[in-house]
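[job 4471] stage=fold_predict status=RUNNING
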Amino acid sequence: MALHRSQKLNLLRIAVLLTVTLAGLKFFFRDSFMLDQHKGPGGGESGFWGEAGAPEQLAKPRDGSLMLAEVKTAAGRKESRKQPVRDFSTTQMRLVHLDLKGAAPKVSYLEQVFPLFSKLGANGVLIEYEDMFPFKGELEVLKSPYAYSEEDIERIQDLAELNKLEVIPLVQTFGHVEFILKHDKYRHLREVERFPNSFNPHVPETLALLKAVLTQVLGKHRRSSWVHIGADEVFHLGEGMDSKNWLSRNAGDMGKMYLNHIREVVAFVASQDWGLQVLMWDDMLRKIGVAAIQDSGITQHASPMLWFYAPNFDKQQIGKYISKYAECGFKTVWFASAFKGTTGPAQAWTPLNHHLQNHLQWLSVMRSVAKTPLARLQGIVLTGWQRYDHYSALCELLPVGIPSLAVCLQTLVNGGFNEATKKKVLDTLGFQSMQLEKSTCVGNGAFPGSDIYRMVEQVNNQLKDSVVKVLEEESSIKGWFSQYHRKHQFGNPRNMESFGSKVLKVHEDWESFLQTLRTHLESVYFPDTVEEWMEENVNPHMDRLREFVRDFKEIIRLNARPKTL
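[job 4471] inference complete, writing structure tokens
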């Protein structure tokens, strides 16, 4: 039956009243309802927009692509969180450099040596990953077959934090990028097509690639306060055709060309939410004028790291560089010494006194800076180079360099190297005495890798001489088993037996020793490192001995037959 107009109005009034009443009740109970809905798993409140636990009644995205975008955005916000910026203004950093472009240790070994680093006086590690970082996606081609996993990277940072060591990743962004430019995929980004050392800074893809590399590395280092962008030794810069054209249009200003690229890298790091300060090697800045550096704007977010590794470097020249960088506007400066890896591209044994003298020189510079503070000294990195570059041979292994690291760190901590400092080093490492000039330590040692240290010392000091002595100084070998005899398989067992037992014993002893050494190396290093080190340091000598023993056994079995022609 149709309702009269007055009845319709009354029903409408009642509906409106009920709606208002329900709205009021919902408003009244809103706070307790929403609080329960939006508490996170730990009991704390969620973000402002209630990302977690939002009620199902909330409007759904119009399509799946929008939902995916929102999920990615939320994940990005979660990934971007990092610890609050810490104040290091009163802390002088002492960093141990881990150069992983060769002989990268297993994480299990880092677990052993990080406590030692801390005990010796380090409060940070500078990690130069190169191809040991677990690059993924388009960058996966860059990683070594033995690269650390993402879990390894997190574990390394956990171990560092446990031992109060700040982690600073180092990512080369201009020179020393052979590990990138060796790949065909990135060959077109070379400054000079023949050489994989340096980027062409004029190709837009160069900066895009660097942003991708930095994003992956720094995304896994959310606890860090600094990033080192390398930027040293940009070999052949200016020799590429793009650079030559640029220089012809810009009065040949090589410094400005270099700074333009560095400015872009620094600006990218500064624009992100990582909250990182930038470190960079200083050598390319040394010849660039103050005004150019000021105009580049890099001084606001970057600090130069002055590196000198010689035992007798020019301290006055260092002072001039410090004054220059202060005038440029850099707020802090860093120094870089060396505890290994700077005395030869294939150096196997670390010269202790050489590196001690380098640190005594730096101590003198540090005292001068403290008296006349032009720019605040933030810290020093004790570099431990493992290769001179991506293509060079291995330098001293980390366990071999640990006594030098101990001497150098304790020298910095104690302001010199006296008898008390030496005793602390010896007690910590488990040695009885130390001869700096001879680079030897007496005693078995009791530090992580001490077995490798001691056995490498024997290889370095004795293997070559042992082989030479048994093969070249034995007159009966020269007379009855020369290269001519071996070539023509011609020998008399009566004469061969006079030297055979001695040679076989030397060979057997060394093979047994080297098998034990290999086992120790394999506990610390990946297979490629073990093979490379043995190939470079053992096989050149042992192969002579092995070939001799092989020929000896073959010819003595022939029982004095006529020579082959």
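[job 4471] summary: Confidence is low (pLDDT under 50) at residues 25-81.
[job 4471] exit 0
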